[in-house]
Amino acid sequence: MARIFITGSADGLGQLAAKELINLGHHVVLHARNNERGKQALAKVPGADSVLIADLSSIDETKALASEANALGTFDAIIHNAGVYRVSNNSVSADGLPLAFAVNSLAPYILTCLIQKARRVIYLSSGMHLQGNPNLDNLPTGTNKGSCHVSYSDTKLHDLIMSMGVARKWTDVCANAVDPGWVPTKMGGAGAPGNLEKGFQTQVWLAVSDDPGATVSGHYFHHKTQVHYLPAAGYAPVQEKFITLCEQITGVRFKYC
Questions:
Q1: Which of 19, 156, 220, 229 is catalytic?
Q2: In CATH, which superfamily holds the domain spanning 3-250?
Q3: What string of DSSP letters covers 144-187?
């Protein structure tokens, strides 16, 4: 049976994926942003191995989370599920960065770099990535850390770029991105029209299935089907630019082997 770590698994799609994986007999480590949510996560996901605590808007806490995850041993799969959606344009992290960028973009980058390499890595993107800025010229650098605007669409494009970059650089890893659809979770809202069941099943499938369709790398999925994505995400220069900018902001270097 596989060992899987899922960020943002206190509720929503992360929690549903965790429950499904446990029902299938796998070992799951949860993540929550604070102790209270951690207790709630363990109560709502019976059978989880444990829960790790970190606020992913903090670079230091995200680095510490990677260390705690490594102390538990190597995971077979990691699902980068955590994310924020409805935040104001002027919301900033403890590090003075746009909040959505810190949680949705930088945290998966840091954890990818610092957690021991898993055989499968899944990044949660969105169909909204199609409206993201592939030039990456709006990312925080130097003294403009909090003054730039990074949209939710931008961050979901970053997740796709990251998955494609990892797939290209780590040929021994299956790295893919998923559009779960607009589903009725706390993030998506009660009126979201998407299928909640299908919203988490692709992540589960990519994490543990031996189906030839799931053991691929460098693809973008919606409901277990490879779908169209912004072509720029697949360009090596775009991937390298994103990785370099993340390294400059966080001080964390990408592992190339």
A1: 156
A2: NAD(P)-binding Rossmann-like Domain (3.40.50.720)
A3: -TTTS---HHHHHHHHHHHHHHHHHH-TTSEEEEE---S-SSTT
